[in-house]
Every structure is written in C-alpha cells, then in structure tokens.
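Lab notebook: predicted structure, single chain.

Context: the supervisor wants predicted structures on file for every construct in the current expression panel, including those that have not yet been purified. This is the next one on the list. No modifications to the sequence; it matches the entry in the shared construct table.
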Amino acid sequence: MKEFFSEDIIEYFEEKSKKNCNYAALFEDIEKKFRKNDICKLLNYIFKEKHDYSLLNVVIRKANKYKFVQNINALIDFILIQNQSQEFANLKVLAIKTISGYKDKNAVAALLFCLNDKNSNYKVRLAAAEALGKIGDRAAYESLINVVCDDKEKSTYVKESAVTALGMLGDNRALDVFDSIINAKQMFLDKFIFLKEKIIEAMSKFDATKDKKALNILKKALLDSSSKIRISAIEAIMNLDIDESYEIIYECMKYDSDIEVKKNALVALYNLSDRRILDEVAKGSYEDELREYANYLIKVYEADND
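Prediction complete. Output recorded below exactly as produced.
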C-alpha cells in the first residue's frame, strides 16, 4: 500500500472525488491511508471550500466521530452561514449537535445567535437551545429565559427546548419564571400543556432538598386543571429524593377528582414503599375502580415474585 504524506491528503481527496461521489466510501479509504491529524486538516479544508450537501453530511459526521479540537472553529463558522434551504438547515442541525459534543464554551455566542434568529428554521433553533443546555454555560441563561418569556415567539417547540436547556443549566433564577408559567390558566391549549410538562421534567435537574421553590412548583402543578400535568407532577415528585414525597402523593391519591390521576398516584406510592399501600386501597373505602386497580397490581406484584 502506498504511504501518503500530510500534504498529499487534499490532493488525494480532490483526485478521488472526481471519480467517486460515494463520499462515505471515499472517507473509509482515506481513513485507512492517512493519519488522524491529516484527516483533521482535510475536514477543515472541506468546511471552507466545499458546498456539496452529501459531502458535508459525511464530513460533519466525521467531525463528530473524531472531535478534533482544531475543527471546532470550522463548525462554528459553518452554523453561522446564512442559507435558508431545508437541506442546509438539516446540515446545521447536525453540526450543532456535533458542537454540543465538544462542550466548548467558545461556541456559546454562535449558538445564541442561532437560537435568537427568528428567521432561521425552527429545527436549527431547537438544536441550538439543546446544545446550550448540554454545554452548560450559564452565560446562556438570559437568552434562554427570554425565549421562554417571549409572547411573540411563534414556535412552542423552541420554547420547550429552551425550558429543557434551562433545566440542564440548573440555574435557580429560572424557577421564578417556571413558577409563573405553572400558575397560568391557559389549560385548554395543548401547546401550553406541553410547555408545562417540560417545566415539570426540568424540575428533576434542581436540588429540591436545597431549594424549596422546585418542590413548591411541583405542588402547584398537582392543582393544575389538566390531569396530564397532575400526572406528570406525581411522577416528578416520586423521583425526588425527599421525605415528603410519599405524603404529598398520598394526598393526591385520596382527594384528586380524576381516577387516572389516582391510579398513577397509587403506582407512585407503591414504587416509594411496598405492597402494603396496595392492600390498604384494595380493602379500604375507595372508588370501586381504584380498588379493582389495586387488586390488579397485587396480582402483577405476586406474578413478578413467583
């Protein structure tokens, strides 16, 4: 096999790519013949000089595979290119996800630009929000919270991703905003319910043993008009490592008006304790449907332990 020198890799790529547009196969060949630092050099060259969708798709995936530090600036420059085509948006999403794997705070400014560009494809903005959360730089807090609070923001998906990112950041300043959204009454709008559910998911990132705001938000969610929100809150409280969880959920099981909420509360109580709660409900003064469900769970419990 011929041994190639560093300066040969670009020449080799240009020559082979004229004859072979199967870029995945071409890169497999290149990876066998050249050293990793040469491949890094080639990736930067392609990012700067090439505009072929199929080629860039492969190159971004290779950048994700190798995570060469020297490629991060090329990736950042790439996501800032102004191109509104759907194909290019898909490449940007892929590049942003790759950048998030580097966890390089130098990318935060570019990601914030992508997040705040309302003319950009919403998938790009979603990816930018998620990447900011993964990188974990609290400098992103203001932009993320502005997206969540912006009444003119048309994309609920972007709002939801911003909430998820704020949860990843774990910045307690977000709790007041989350609290105000949980208190809001637009319960008939599905998109608003989904946003509340994302907030409840985000609560798992905050230490409820140190900051009671997180627990209070979940308690308020248990009073929401939407049974979906109440069920989500029960699951979140169950997963908190706090002594109050059992008592709070027990109250839901006894007094909530929705049987499905009661059933979910019963399962959560069983997960937090043992079979005794099932026996209590099966033999107690509860709705017939809840008692039947407790008996069903007992049978499942016994089958699992046979």
